[in-house]
Amino acid sequence: AASMVLFAALPAHAQINKYGCIYAVDPYGKIVKDPYGNCIRTPYWTAEKNVPECGAVAVVEPAAPVVETLSLGADAYFDFDRANLKPAGRAKLDKLVTDLRRVASVSSIEIVGHTDSKGTEAYNYRLGQRRADSVARYLTAKGVPSSIISTRSRGELDPVAPNTLPNGRDNPAGRALNRRVVITVTAMEHVISQ
After folding, report:
1. Residues in Cβ contact with 53 at an 8 Å cutoff, skipping those fewer than 6 apart
2. What are the structural domain ranges in the chain?
3. CA triplet 170, 171, 172: central angle to 5 degrees?
4. Domain spanning 66-187 has what CATH number?
5. Distance, CA of 183 to CA of 96 (rounded, Å)
6. What share of the chain is helix, strand, coil (3-state, %, to 5)?
7. Over the stretch 3-55, which tens digit does the pLDDT of each residue have?
8. Distance (Å, rounded) from C-alpha 148 to C-alpha 173?
C-alpha cells in the first residue's frame, strides 16, 4: 500500500514501461526510488519479475548429482559360490572409501549383486544378496554411513554376457562377466579440499 501511495505521488515525468510496467522509471529509463532507496513498484509488480537492481536474488541452480558406477567382478573379488571378500576386493573397496572421503556430499550408495545362471534362480538371488550385503558391511566398517547404503540382488536376471554359446554349450567367459557386484554412488560434485 505504501508503494501505491508513492506511485500515485510520482512526478509527472515518471514513466512506467521499460521494465514491463513493474517499476516506475524516470525519463532516462532509470528506476525511480523512494527516499529510503526502495524501488517504486507499480500494481503489476510480482516477486518473479523483480530485478537485481531492486533486490532480486539471482537464482542459483543446484549442482546436478554425479552418478558413478563401479563393478566388481565376483571371480576376482569373491571366492567361487561365496560372499566373503578376497583381499583384492577389500583393496578395491578401500580405494572407493578413500574416494568417498573426498566428496562433500554422498547422497546414496546402491550395491547390487549379480550371478550367472548356474544353480536355481532362488539360490542365485540369495547369493547375489549375500555378496551385496558383504560389500555393504565392509563399507560400513570403514566408516561409510549405513543410512546411505542400500543393497539388493538381481541374481541371474541381468546378464551382461551370454551364459551359453549359440550352440547351447557353456560359456565360461560370459558366466564370469555375469558374476559381479555393481556399486552405484550418487554424490554432489563438490570435492573436499585437503
Report:
1. 31, 39
2. 1-59, 66-187
3. 105
4. 3.30.1330.60
5. 10
6. 30, 25, 45
7. 444 445 555 444 445 456 778 888 787 888 888 888 888 888 777 777 778 87
8. 34
C-alpha cell at 187: 554424490
Residue 47, helix vs strand vs coil: helix
Pairing of strands 180-187, 106-114: antiparallel
Q: Which amino acid is at 141?
A: A
| CA 123 to mean position of chain CA atoms | 33
Q: How far, CA to CA in Å, does 127 sit from each of 113, 122, 151, 160?
A: 8, 9, 12, 17
* Cell reading at 7: 506511485
Please give the order of strands across the beta sheet that includes 149-155: 66-73, 180-187, 106-114, 149-155
Q: Give burial (CB, 10 Å; 0-12/13-18/19+) of 12.
A: exposed
| pLDDT digit string, tens, across residues 112-171 | 999 999 999 999 999 999 999 999 999 999 999 999 999 999 999 999 999 999 999 999
